[in-house]
Amino acid sequence: MKKIAFYFLPLLVFCISCEDIFVENISNREVTVICPGDNWELELQDDSTMTAEVVFWWEYLKGADRYVLQLVSPDFSNINRLLFDVVVDSANSYSMALPAGQYQWRIRAGNSSYFTDYVTRSFSVLKMELGEIGELEEIEETEEAEETEEFEEEGGK
Fold first, then answer.
1. Per the domain annotation, does 69 fall within a domain?
2. What span, in angstroms and rounded, lies between the C-alpha atoms of 50 and 97?
3. Structure pTM?
């Protein structure tokens, strides 16, 4: 019996620690951010909600099984608010409704043994002033009238 334990115990220890041997080292890789990119701006146009749905989206990283996302306002060197610090398992996006403001987010990938460095991006959600909305509608109406004139000049009805 002691002989079996003598051979079985080292095998058991080896099998338990095998995960560390076979887990891919991703610590020297970087997560590729799709959006929001650096200095990205989104304008609020709907006064009823006063928030914009922002989708945080990145490419999958081979060897990673989770992603750590953090969002602060205005930035990580001057944090006024921590809006989220979440772990996302097996997905490559996360969304949140945000009011107008300056934001910075960062992401890193991980597995059971390794993490990448954070990739950080800044973005803004801008509140569009009512005068600006009217100007946009006026521009759209002018463009529509010009298109109608061109169509009629070309013989359209």
1. yes
2. 9
3. 0.69
Q: What do you get for the CA distance between the two ends of the chain, in Å? A: 99
What helix, strand, coil percent values describe the chain, rounded to 5? 30, 40, 30
d(Cα 135, Cα 141) in Å, to the nearest integer?
Answer: 10
As a whole number of angstroms, the distance between CA 112 and CA 139 comes to: 54
Place of tokens 């610090």: 85
Q: What is the pLDDT of residue 130?
A: 59
Separation between Cα atoms, residue 148 and residue 151, nearest integer Å? 5
pLDDT of residue 90: 80
62 inside domain: yes
pLDDT number for residue 50 = 86
Tokens read off for 109: 């990938």
CATH number at residue 63: 2.60.40.10
Nearest Cα neighbor of 103 from 130, 126, 81, 122 is: 122
- Strand ranges across the sheet with 78-89: 40-44, 119-127, 101-110, 66-75, 78-89
